[in-house]
Amino acid sequence: MEAFLKDLCSNKKKSYVCDAQVQSALAGLAVALRDVLPILKSSHAQGGSPNEAASPLQESPSSSSSLINASWLLKHCSTVSSALGANYLAECIYDVATNESLDEASQQAALFDVLGSSDQAMAVLFEIMPVMREIARNMRRDELVSDDTIVQNGNAVAAAPIYVDLEEEKRQLLVQEAREAAQLAELARQELEHANSYTNASETLTHSVARQSNRDATKQVERLEKKAAQALARAKEQGAILDDEIFWKLDLQERGPGGLMKKSTNDLEALHDSLLASGAKQYYNDKGLPFGTMFEKGSGYEKVIIPAARRDESKLPDRLKVREVMDEACQRAFDGTESLNPMQSTVFDVAFWGRENMLVCAPTGAGKTNVAMLAVVSHFRDVGLLPGASTSNQTIMETGRKVVYIAPMKALAQEVVEKFSSKLKSLRLIVRELTGDMQLTRAEAESANVIVTTPEKWDVVTRKSGTDELSLGNQCGLLIIDEVHLLADDRGAVIESVVARHHRLVEACQRQLRIVALSATLPNYMDVANFLQVPPRGIFFFGPEFRPVPLQQSMIGISKKDRRQRDIKMNEICYDIVIDSLRRGYQVMVFVHSRKGTGDTARALADLAAADGALESHFVTAGKDGVAGDAYSRYKDKVTKSRDRQVAMHFQNGMGIHHAGMLRGDRKLTENMFSDGAIKILCCTA
Predict the structure, then answer these.
(1) What confidence category does residue 272 fall into, taking pLDDT thresholds of 50, 70 and 90?
(2) Angstrom distance (rounded) from CA 380 to CA 109
(3) Ranges assigned E (strand) in 240-340
(4) Chain centre distance of CA 284
(5) Cα separation, 288 vs 225, whole angstroms
(6) Which residue of 124, 231, 298, 596 could cross-link 178, Cys pair, CB 3.0 to 4.6 Å?
(7) What is the mean pLDDT of residues 405-427?
(8) Do the bridges between strand 681-685 and strand 588-592 make them parallel or antiparallel, or are there none, so unpaired?
(9) Nearest Cα residue to 499 out of 473, 467, 472
(10) Residue 344 has pLDDT above 80, yes or no
(11) For 406, which DSSP code?
(12) What count of Cα atoms within 13 Å lies in the side-chain half-sphere of residue 23?
């Protein structure tokens, strides 16, 4: 019939006479039949009655593109359960279809984001994807339903107006604010209780230490509780909360197990340990401060005294006898040492018989310098500079023959030179210093076996070395870095440059260079080991139990607000500690932050001692009997020749100062006077 009507309207050869009205009516009939016939055919094919209306998802729009219109798209969108509404979904689908920059995969992903992942949404997605071109071609955006209408049975009808109770919304907002404020206060309260449980973990303690962090946390709890009370009062004033008890019950029920609110003590401890840096767990596993910690509060200060840890020799490694583990040639470097301490015995195999990089983290005074000496002797044995010494592989190693020892300060470099010179003199090995105070000629540098320097000086030496085999930097076969934890200091960038330059030299020349790093205990030692390229076998970490002499720690906090009053109080407390040590027969070293502070502190202590009547009796060594009096007599004439008048002035009071700004001779003179007992108190920079 459709073909017949088309032929009737268009074939001019036939003799039918139709006026304009007939032709228009027939054309409209043809269009209507063209739209309805596919639906009737589809219904027949599914066994349904021709009079039954097909659902939107049962249509087969691919048979005729003219069926793809705004009404068809809205019907499909109305089957998807969405808070956005069918009109908004239709507009989004139209935007995706008309976006020419999207390929098929991008269109499908965009439709999935718009429609969702429900079964109805997926069914609509599969229906729409094949006809995206028809949607873009057959529709206009203004044909789609606007935001103020909805679709019902395929027709657009006006949406019912939505009335909002502003007062109710305000009350709900006040309730929410009150609950959030109450939860924050409760969380802060529980964290404070947990912190206090760490501080007062042992019931046997007869004292308690109030930490500053706990005091700050207490103030924070008070502030949050005040805010919570204010929020609750505002909600009650507006009638949002009528009964406090009902509010708190609902709040606890709705709070849920989220965050840290419902975590047990064990869970919180596990979370705390997991956030610590690698290697720090063994210092924080014990709750609170050690047993025996004392707290003292005086006028203008607070003091916490942590007793020295008990040293249990039975739990430490056995001591190695030097004669049993070294041959005679190597033993000469350890004259006067019968056995290695537990820390040195632990690292002996790697330090003396190995060639891999090493990182040794141990407390101050644990004997790290002797670990460096083990590596030095091992290096000279392997390169053939120790006649008669037995090597591990009986072959001479092809590497740099010099040892470079990097000390953090010139004063320490000078001390290392003296110590290594006395130890290696019997092996006919030469130790020289290369710092800002001591320059080396080319001949002296070539003849030196061990060069002791500072990071800045060695950075300058190696910066222009390149791959020249004769350069001083490329003759290094063993690099010892003392106090490597200074990587975190302002000078850490210089140490990083030196290490990176040596790593590059190893890769360029394909020659082994050993790095031995010594450090105080630090929590992230594994990060430092990775930077130094230390294998697991060469990493050693020792706790305070390896300290030969137990250390008692005292932390004193000055509570004075005024800076001048604070300095005065600090000098008074320092004097009390100094005079207590002098009365027990000990010498004292006072560390300050600046060079100028050394002289200021020495003068303040002398004034306080004079006012207390203790200057002549405990400070001054002039005219005294015994070692101190004899030492004073020996250095009396030498002090008068010093260029620094402060040296002579403080010497008269039995005191001395020491910092890097002094002349090398004055520093050496002060060190010798303190070592021999001519002065009892030394004020120096850290």
Answers:
(1) low
(2) 69
(3) 294-298, 301-306
(4) 17
(5) 27
(6) 231
(7) 90
(8) parallel
(9) 473
(10) yes
(11) E
(12) 10
